Amino acid sequence: MNEPTGYAVFFFPPALEALGDAIKPYLQDGPAGPHVPCREVDTAGAFIELTLEGRTPDGREVELELMVPGNMVRMIVSARSDHGFGFATRSRPMLEPGMQDAAPAEAPVAAKPGA
C-alpha cells in the first residue's frame, strides 16, 4: 500500500463562516465541498495543527502551520497517491479467478410468539 500523500481537512459550515477571509486562501473546492489540503495533521491537543506547503509570490517554497480549534473540524481524510481523492461512485471491484461473488446473507427471521 502506498504511503499517504497528505490529508484533506473539512470544516463545519459555521466554522468556515467564523474563520472568514482568514481561511479562504487555504481552501480548495472539491466534490465533497471546500477543504484544506495539508501534508501533516496533528490532533493532539485542543487545537488541530495543519502543516501545509505553500509558495511565496516570488516562487520560494514555504511551510505553513495553521492551528484551528478541534471543534471546528468536521472530518479529516487521508488522500492516498494510489487513486484519486474524492467522493464518487465506484465500480465494483473485479474478483480474482476462482472467487465467487457472495450474495449478502439474509437476516434470520425471528419466531413469532406462540408459533
The ordered H/E elements are: EHEEEEE
The strands making up the biggest β-sheet line up spatially as 2-1-6
Q: Tell me the distance between the termini.
A: 53 Å
Number of strands: 6
Instruction: Estimate the helix proportion, in percent.
Output: under 10%
| Class by alpha and beta content | mainly beta
How many helices? The count is 1
Rg calculated over all Cα atoms:
21 Å
Task: Estimate what percentage of residues fall within beta strands.
Answer: 35-45%
Mean of pLDDT: 79
Shape: globular
Which regions contain 5 or more consecutive residues with pLDDT less than 50?
101-108
Largest sheet: 3 strands, antiparallel
List keywords for this structure.
115 residues; mainly beta; three-stranded antiparallel β-sheet; 6 strands; 6% helix
In short:
The chain has 115 residues and is mainly β. It contains 1 helix and 6 strands; from the N terminus they run βαβββββ.
Describe this entry's structure for a reader:
The chain contains one helix and six strands. By secondary structure, it is mainly β.
Any chance you could write out the topology, listing elements then pairs?
Elements: E1 4-11, H1 13-19, E2 35-38, E3 40-42, E4 47-55, E5 61-69, E6 73-80
Antiparallel strand pairs: 1-2, 1-6, 3-4, 4-5
